[in-house]
């Protein structure tokens, strides 16, 4: 595919951006952001009595909250990436420092066992372990530092958490009655929970509609629990 054809792909920029996160991470960030906003809007629906100014203030607070948590979650994602690479660096150093080939193979086997399905036959697996061991023995480690890809991934995390708050604000721009706007806002957010569950099911192979409904019920339950605990 040429550069020109890629530039015409409407999903190209988006996939290059969020594609730095695996599907499970994307779903997790969307779910987190939606639950954060719903905690504000559902809780407000219990306490507010149609005061439009108070409702708008609440939505601004929700946007501010998701902005703050987007920054925090992005930083935590960055730390998690560095920690995982650090763990792999320590594993490589441990393998390189182990003179006993069988012990070194055991370390390789334990690591690959977390990543390779059991469908791989014993013969293929033994050959793969041996090949990985030889490559690791001759590997030269680079310094574990923050890369441009890490920063883009952290930015993707921030935007996914932040943008989930925007649909909740839209009804207040077009619906004059604050009480109705709040209900429409909550309905949109619950609908988005169904969509997130639907997308998650397409990754995991589960029933799409059942998973979507389960995600909505789970999200609302967690929100009500948070409200009940004073969150």
Structural features, described:
The chain has 11 helices and no strands. It has one domain. The protein has 231 residues and is mainly alpha-helical. The termini are far apart.
Key words describing this protein structure:
231 residues, mainly alpha, disordered N terminus
* Outline type: elongated
Rg for CA atoms: 23 Å
Query: Which class do the helix and strand fractions yield?
Result: mainly alpha
Order of helices and strands: HHHHHHHHHHH
Helix proportion range: over 70%
N- and C-termini, Cα separation: 50 Å
Looking at the chains present, what oligomeric state does this protein adopt? single chain
Mean pLDDT: 81
Number of domains: 1
How many DSSP helices? 11
Any low-confidence stretches, pLDDT <50, length ≥5? 1-10
Strand content: under 5%
Brief rundown of the structure:
With 231 residues, the chain is mainly alpha-helical. It has 11 helices and no strands. The protein has one domain (22-228).
Blueprint (SSEs and pairs):
Layout (H helix, E strand, L loop, with lengths): L2 H6 L3 H7 L4 H25 L4 H45 L4 H13 L8 H16 L10 H16 L2 H4 L1 H4 L3 H27 L3 H21 L3
Helix pairs in contact: 3-4, 3-7, 3-10, 3-11, 4-5, 4-7, 5-6, 10-11
């Amino acid at each position: 595919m040429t550069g020109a054809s890629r530039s015409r792909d409407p999903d190209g920029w988006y996939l290059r951006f969020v594609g730095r996160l695996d599907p499970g991470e994307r779903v997790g960030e969307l779910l987190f952001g939606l639950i954060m906003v719903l905690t504000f809007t559902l809780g407000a629906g219990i306490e507010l009595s149609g005061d439009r100014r108070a409702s708008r203030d609440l939505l601004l607070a929700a946007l501010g909250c998701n902005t703050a948590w987007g920054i925090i979650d992005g930083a935590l994602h960055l730390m998690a990436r560095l920690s995982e690479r650090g763990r792999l660096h320590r594993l490589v150093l441990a393998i390189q420092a182990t003179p006993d080939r069988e012990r070194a193979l055991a370390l390789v086997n334990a690591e690959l066992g977390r990543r390779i399905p059991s469908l791989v036959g014993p013969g293929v697996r033994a050959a793969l372990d041996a090949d990985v061991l030889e490559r690791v023995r001759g590997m030269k480690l680079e310094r574990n530092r923050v890369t441009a890809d890490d920063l883009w991934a952290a930015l993707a995390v921030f935007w996914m958490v932040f943008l989930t708050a925007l649909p909740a604000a839209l009804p207040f721009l077009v619906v004059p009655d604050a009480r109705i706007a709040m209900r429409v806002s909550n309905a949109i957010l619950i609908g988005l929970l169904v969509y997130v569950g639907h997308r998650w099911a397409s990754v995991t192979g589960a029933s799409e509609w059942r998973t979507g409904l389960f995600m909505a019920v789970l999200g609302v339950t967690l929100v009500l629990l948070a409200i009940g605990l004073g969150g």
